[in-house]
Amino acid sequence: MEHRVIDNLIEVKEKIEKTATKCGRSPDDIKLVAVSKMVGVEKIKEAISAGVTILGENYLQEAKGKIEEVGKSVQWHMIGHLQTNKVKQAIELFDLIQSVDRLSLAQEIHKRAKSLDKRVRILVQVNISEEDTKSGIERESAVSLISEIARLTNISIEGLMTIPPYLLDPQKVRPYFKSLRELGEEIERRGFENTSMKELSMGMSNDFEVAIEEGATIVRVGTAIFGERG
Ligand SMILES: *Cc1c(COP(=O)(O)O)cnc(C)c1O
To answer: What's the pLDDT tens digit per position in 17-49?
Structure first.
């Protein structure tokens, strides 16, 4: 039998609290993004009633319908691959774009943001494991990409995001989380304009506790809240 969203959410929040406390962090410093791709509006509303305040979506078209129906009483984060021709809509719909992985995309965001006279908050997505299948900028090119995005005045870079390889044993994912944190520290030291490394978005249903131990400030949890997709 599938658990109710509210029970799942309580369980996830307890784990976040326990893990944070155990490693001397404040649970308030960890934001939970409930990943609602392929999840219907009914369940999303259930999650919001149960206390979810940030939702993460992967596909613009799917997200658009849901955001129009559910509304903006919660925050919406874009966590999937974003096509340049969807930027105009994306910056109107989302509060944070976590998946910026190339200069051309950032330039388009800057251009559109400028015409709306706003500043768009982004994270830079890094392919920390260098798997060909994963999107994200390669680790060794990340500093250079960020130095270029930092010049775009209508963008505020707020941190890094990664999707590590899926491994059954979450301990095996730890080195990737550590590597993202160290990259963030390196970028912080460089002191780029319009850039802070306050957010590290890493950790999903299977490994968010390890991610928190390694410094995650945003965890993106789908299955553990909404159940298996599809
Ligand atoms: C689907 C997805 C998640 C959530 O994954 P779960 O294993 O269901 O928790 C998190 N981040 C991204 C980028 C995703 O695409």
So the answer is: 999 999 999 999 999 999 999 999 999 999 999
Report the alpha-carbon distance of residue 145 to residue 106 in Å, rounded: 10
Q: How far is CA 73 from the centre of its chain?
A: 19
Name the pLDDT band for 230 (thresholds 50, 70, 90).
confident
Which of 101, 124, 167, 220 for mutating ligand 1's site (highest number of atoms within 8 Å of CB)? 220
Q: Which atom of ligand 1 is nearest to the CA of 205?
A: 9
Report whether 218 contacts 209 (CB < 8 A): no
Atom of ligand 1 nearest to the CA of 223: 8
Ligand 1 contact via 159 beta carbon (within 6 Å): no
Q: What is the pLDDT of residues 123-145, one digit of tens each?
A: 999 999 877 777 899 999 999 99
